[in-house]
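Entry type: protein chain
Record version: 2
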Amino acid sequence: MIFKKDTKNEKKLNGDEAVVNNNSAGNELILEEGEEGDINANKKLRELRERLKNCEKEKSEYLSGWQRSKADFINSKKELATEKESFVSFAESSLIKDILPVLSSFSAAMADKKRWEEVPLNWRQGVEYIYSQLMKVLENRGLEIKESINEFFDPNLHEAVGEEEVADLEKDHRITKVLSPVFLQKGKVIQPAKVIVGYFPKNKE
């Protein structure tokens, strides 16, 4: 018996094998393409992380620079305000020092009560009013006048222009007369008082 070769089935079989082979090749291709996509995604992720890291570093540097600039500006502003205050205080002190002889003249004129009362009333009132106005202006600029009678002599506040013997030991080194008071400007001495200091002789102890 002679068998014939079934070419039709063979062709069909070959076709199925080709389909299987093609599908296998496609799967391999899909796997290769998927792996390559994962690699690219990881690479992009690393790049994004690196860029984010650099951005954070730059942000920190910019923030530090801004904070330093702000601190420098605040310090400069404070220094400028302090210098301005010192200049104004110096100018006021200089002005007050120039006016002190005028105040001394007023004080000397009014110190002798007997002679001062001999001056016509209208004149006295006018001079006293001018003096009070002048004192008010100077006091608003920080001027203080301190009397020192009976206080212990203090070289920081007083300038001794003479001595006077006293009979009481408790008055030794105390101020017995004030020729001109202490003038201070905002707590600082701008002119010490001119005073007479009492002394108790040792041979009387």
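Comment: The longest helix spans residues 7-111.
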